[in-house]
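TA notes, week 10

Several of you asked for a full example with nothing omitted. So below is the full record: structure tokens for the whole chain, then the designed sequence directly under it. When grading your own attempts, check the secondary structure regions first.
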């Protein structure tokens, strides 16, 4: 410590910082230490890369303008709808979309979107995430999907809505089947190392490895989840024996925001009955789409009727 003090005299002059009171809870303390270690690992990788490339400072992406991304998304969606053939379920999809946008103006917390297949949950969830990030000054959006084919499909949808030819990349697609070496897309490989991108589409496996893995390469991504909107798709497919630790790590008000603001906004799509479990029950989730008035039933009825007619 004496040698360190001679190199960094400001350390010797600074008062001792006491850990936050919330660290007295073992699970909060464990996650807080993981966040600190994640930031340290990422800084070490970035500083090393800057040193060997001769850069003065590490290469870190500037904060994203989510208000601009929100507007771009809305305009691209309107253009997409104008090109499509009209469908009997367009009214139901619009109702889902508007409900998500309204809910996005709320303070960060846990939100649930219960809507049937064909109701446009993918685009509506993206709109919620962008509006919520812009309204609450959040840093990035992470969409986690359990199925690889759906992950690729969703990444393509979001990329078409958010990216323009010749502009800087916005959507990072990160999973075992993603091509991280596309010509002219070097930023993709670099961003995949620590999720330094405004909009990340990944698998639930990679998301939970970032939360629970012990290896530095995976843990680099953990601190990037701080201040993020997390969209969990098809959560009913999560292994039941892992639900309690997953929900405990993702419970924002009681566990993680007590220290660092991790997982600021969580939207669960096609949510099963998870709220009776202790970690989820403590989060007092609000509904992105209210069950009152039979909203879910009306949308489901219209979507199912349309699919039956087409079949």
């Amino acid at each position: 410590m004496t040698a360190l003090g001679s190199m960094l005299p400001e350390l010797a002059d600074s008062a001792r910082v006491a850990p936050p009171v919330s660290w007295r809870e073992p699970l909060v303390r464990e996650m807080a230490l993981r966040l600190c270690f994640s930031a340290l690992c990422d800084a070490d990788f970035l500083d090393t890369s800057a040193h060997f490339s001769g850069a003065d400072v590490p290469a870190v992406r500037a904060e994203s303008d989510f208000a601009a991304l929100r507007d771009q998304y809305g305009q691209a969606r309107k253009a997409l709808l104008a090109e499509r053939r009209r469908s009997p379920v367009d009214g139901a999809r619009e109702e889902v979309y508007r409900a998500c946008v309204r809910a996005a103006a709320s303070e960060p917390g846990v939100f649930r979107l219960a809507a049937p297949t064909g109701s446009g949950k993918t685009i509506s969830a993206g709109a919620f995430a962008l509006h919520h990030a812009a309204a609450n000054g959040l840093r990035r959006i992470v969409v986690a999907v359990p199925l690889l084919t759906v992950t690729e499909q969703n990444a393509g949808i979001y990329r078409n809505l958010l990216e323009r030819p010749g502009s800087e990349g916005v959507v990072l697609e990160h999973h075992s089947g993603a091509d991280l070496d596309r010509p002219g897309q070097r930023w993709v490989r670099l961003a995949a190392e620590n999720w330094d991108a405004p909009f990340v589409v990944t698998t639930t496996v990679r998301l939970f490895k970032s939360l629970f893995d012990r290896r530095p390469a995976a843990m680099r991504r953990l601190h990037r989840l701080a201040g993020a909107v997390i969209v969990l798709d098809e959560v009913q497919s999560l292994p039941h024996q892992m639900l309690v630790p997953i929900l405990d790590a993702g419970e924002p008000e009681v566990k993680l925001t007590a220290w660092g603001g991790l997982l600021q906004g969580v939207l669960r799509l096609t949510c099963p009955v998870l709220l009776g479990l202790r970690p989820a029950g403590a989060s007092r989730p609000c509904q992105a789409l209210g069950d009152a008035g039979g909203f879910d039933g009306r949308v489901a009825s219209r979507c199912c009727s349309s699919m039956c007619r087409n079949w």
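The chain has a mean pLDDT of 78. Use that as a sanity check on your answer.
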